[in-house]
Amino acid sequence: MLQNAKNIKLAESEGWVSVFVNILLFVLKLFAGIFTGSIALIADAWHTLSDSLSSIIVIIGLKIAKKPADKEHPFGHGRSELISSLLIGGFLAVIAYTFFMEGVNQFKSKESVNYNTFAIVATIISIILKEALAQYAFWIGKKTKSKSVIADGWHHHSDAFSSVIILIGIFLGKYFWWIDALMAMIVTIMILWVAISIIRDASSTILGEEPSTEMMTEISKLANHTANRKLYAHHFHIHNYINHKELTFHVLMPGKMTITESHNIVTQIENKILNELGLVATIHIEPKKQGCND
């Protein structure tokens, strides 16, 4: 949830750092893969380049997200971040499928790979820089509460982990002819898993999520305390627009209470929820049935 310009600028800086570092690593690993004939290294290189492309998507999404609400989009443009995350996930899925099939074909052809020192050095450099980028993205993502930046961080982390697998495979390559094909397939399965996780999380938010039990309990207590009576808060719905969240729920009020009195009470509750929980609340009033005690 990017709440101010400072957070948006911080999130965008992660994207630009990612683009620069990943392009350098892509060139390094691609040359290492070409020189050795390793499909796993070439797949890992494209995985790294996909980080740059996904970071560009993140930057574009953040620029759209910070646009203010307008007539066509009264709740703002925050959900463009989620669309960015879906695009990242889809792009990763395509890469995973492409290089998985390359690994299958290499198994069928029984091609072996001869690694060299350049491949080892390139892989070690990739592991160090990619994990550093991942931790940087996680830190910024948590600080700014940006889903797309966190998704970018998991992309970096998966790339670092895939490079670890490739490094292990490099040292085992001289013993097993099929190790490169196996590594390529393992790396693509990891990429696919990350893609599915990113798509699932973004889709869940877009489709709408039920407030947690803890949140509903906290809101009920706050409402009862503010009104100085038990309101039997129920029928909770929350709408996540990333830059802000809309909350609706129902409360019970005495049937003899005037509209003005009940309006004043729910207005106080709405203001309290906004100040303490950061949620824009809309409360529906229902007449309390006989038998419900204050």
Notable traits:
elongated; 3-stranded mixed β-sheet; 2 domains; mainly alpha; 9% strand; Alpha-lytic protease prodomain-like; 294 residues
Characterization of this structure:
The protein is 70% helix and 9% strand. The chain has a three-stranded mixed sheet with strand order 1-2-3, covered by helices on one side. It is built from eight helices and three strands. The radius of gyration is 26 Å and the shape is elongated. It has two domains: 5-207, Up-down Bundle (Alpha-lytic protease prodomain-like), CATH 1.20.1510.10; 213-287, 2-Layer Sandwich (Alpha-Beta Plaits), CATH 3.30.70. β1 (234-240) and β2 form a beta hairpin. With 294 residues, it is mostly helical.
Element layout with pairings:
Layout (H helix, E strand, L loop, with lengths): L4 H32 L2 H27 L14 H30 L7 H28 L2 H26 L6 H29 L5 H15 L6 E7 L4 E9 L5 H19 L1 E9 L7
Parallel strand pairs: 2-3
Antiparallel strand pairs: 1-2
Helix pairs in contact: 1-2, 1-4, 2-3, 2-5, 2-6, 3-5, 3-6, 4-5, 5-6, 7-8
